Amino acid sequence: MYLQIGQETIYLLLTGGLFASLMLTLYVASLRGPTEQPPIVTLSEADGYTFPTGSAEIGPAFARALRTAAAPRLRELSDRYEAPIIEVIGHTDEMPLSGRMRGDLDAALIPWLSGARTREPVSSDNVGLGMARAVAVARALREAGLDDRYTIIPLSAGPLVKPGDVVTDGASAADERRRRRIELRLRRPAAEAR
Questions:
Q1: Where are the domains positioned within the chain?
Q2: What global pTM score does this model have?
Q3: CATH architecture assignment, domain 37-189
Q4: Is 91 within 8 Å of 158 (Cβ atoms)?
Q5: What are the pLDDT digits (tens) for 121-148?
């Protein structure tokens, strides 16, 4: 009789331990926040987000779209996914820039991003043009109300990455509007930075 009571007690303890382990696992998972990745917001020239040829100048319609559509969408996605870092990635097509003088991006990008410089920096190649456009959009997003709660990081992929994260093979040096775009990617801070 004592042996049978001991087995029931063991089963009860094992069931309780399993339940406690499951609850602890769920609790730890809830501390990590969302694990799903935020969607990529694409501002494509094919969809009307256009820069003048070879330029990083944002026109009035583009600035309005950033203020009324992109910035509110980024705030909403940032809150939903707990992702306060916004990577602004400038993409170009493979058409070489023609008639360009020496660029001034090394000296001009940081002051332009901070608003201290009003003249658009000059890029001499597509990688530089992608960066100048990313900086222009990052600056415009700040002006549209994305405050210091958000870390906005401008980057350039130049002509290297086609839509869909496909790395180009260099065989399509054509005028492609869908490749000329800004991608806005949200992410969470690295674990060690938290």
A1: 1-32, 37-189
A2: 0.77
A3: 2-Layer Sandwich (3.30)
A4: yes
A5: 888 889 999 999 999 999 999 999 999 9
